[in-house]
């Protein structure tokens, strides 16, 4: 058996999951890196480093199982409030990982994009981002969005400013503003709203992530810390998702009367 054959087997969709019921877009709040490190008596940054491996495995698994888009929360607008050493480490880590993984993303047909205000990021990181986005732009395997310096409120405000500017210059009328137009001014304009939000490490909050887009997402919250989140746990999340009854505010057809 060749190594390739083995790996293609291990990446097949588990038989208890239905391909037709896979979420098209999964969003994930990768939380718990610091606690993972602390439990082991390690500095927090070791948790972030291990967290990268988890993300790589999840991205591959999503692609193999037919998820069309994965959005990962890497750095929030509030995370600037952390100690300078941790922030600097994270920025350097993002840059290094992008540079190192670009070839593999091409091989695996991943299209990477970034959501958030990128102008505040270090110049060298912005350059790596531009390069990765451009090189992968025609890939079709999966759309991988990395939320970096992302805040849901900031995103909504920048959309409001852009729309107000167009109204002021007469390009549109206030009554033209609807959900569809508003969505087109968000960083996520080219992807559907997430069907599923996963948050690791047990926190029951949204922490300013995709405030508009998560309106009807299903939530899966696990106590597992991000560095320990593996394919088995993702499998559990998919099973839970496929068992959900998504009503979108309506009633089930059979209960219609
Ligand atoms: C998530 O892990 C990673 C980032 C926010 C960058 P944390 O660093 O928040 O880990 P905990 O929540 O302190 O354990
Ligand atoms: C959310 O995690 C942000 C990211 C995962 C990047 P945080 O650890 O920053 O969120 P809070 O502080 O627990 O709400
Ligand atoms: Mg945290």
UniProtKB/TrEMBL annotation:
Enzyme class name: transferase
Keywords: Magnesium, Metal-binding, Transferase
Cofactor: Mg(2+)
Active site as annotated: 31, 79 (proton acceptor)
Cofactor stoichiometry and binding remark: Binds 2 magnesium ions per subunit.
GO molecular function term, any single one: magnesium ion binding
Xref: Pfam families: Prenyltransf (PF01255)
SUPFAM superfamilies linked to this entry: Undecaprenyl diphosphate synthase
GO annotation terms (biological process): polyprenol biosynthetic process
Presence of the UniProt keyword DNA-binding in the record: no
UniProt keyword Cytoplasm, yes or no: no
Protein family per UniProt: Belongs to the UPP synthase family.
Assembly notes: Homodimer.
The protein's role, per its UniProt record: Catalyzes the condensation of isopentenyl diphosphate (IPP) with allylic pyrophosphates generating different type of terpenoids.
Name listed for the protein in its UniProt record: Isoprenyl transferase
Annotated source species: Leptolyngbya foveolarum
């Amino acid at each position: 058996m060749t190594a390739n054959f083995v790996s293609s087997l291990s990446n097949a969709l588990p038989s208890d999951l239905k391909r037709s019921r896979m979420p098209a877009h999964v969003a994930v709040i990768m939380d718990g890196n610091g606690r993972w490190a602390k439990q082991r008596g390690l500095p927090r940054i070791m948790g972030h480093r291990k967290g990268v491996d988890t993300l790589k495995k999840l991205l591959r698994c999503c692609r193999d199982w037919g998820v069309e888009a994965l959005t990962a929360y890497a750095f929030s607008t509030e995370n600037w409030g952390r100690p300078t050493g941790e922030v600097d480490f994270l920025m350097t880590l993002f840059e290094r990982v992008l540079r190192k993984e670009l070839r593999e993303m091409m091989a695996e047909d991943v299209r990477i994009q970034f959501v958030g205000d990128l102008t505040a990021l270090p110049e060298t990181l912005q350059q790596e981002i531009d390069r990765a986005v451009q090189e992968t732009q025609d890939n079709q395997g999966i759309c991988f969005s990395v939320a970096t310096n992302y805040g849901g409120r900031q995103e909504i405000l920048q959309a409001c400013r852009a729309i107000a500017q167009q109204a002021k210059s007469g390009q549109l009328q206030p009554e033209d503003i609807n959900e569809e137009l508003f969505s087109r001014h968000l960083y996520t304009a080219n992807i559907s709203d997430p069907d599923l939000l996963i948050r690791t490490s047990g926190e029951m909050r949204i922490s300013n992530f995709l405030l508009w887009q998560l309106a009807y997402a299903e939530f899966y919250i696990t106590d597992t810390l991000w560095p320990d989140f593996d394919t088995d746990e993702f499998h559990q999340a998919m099973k839970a998702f496929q068992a959900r009854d998504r009503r979108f505010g309506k009633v089930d057809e059979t209960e219609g009367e």
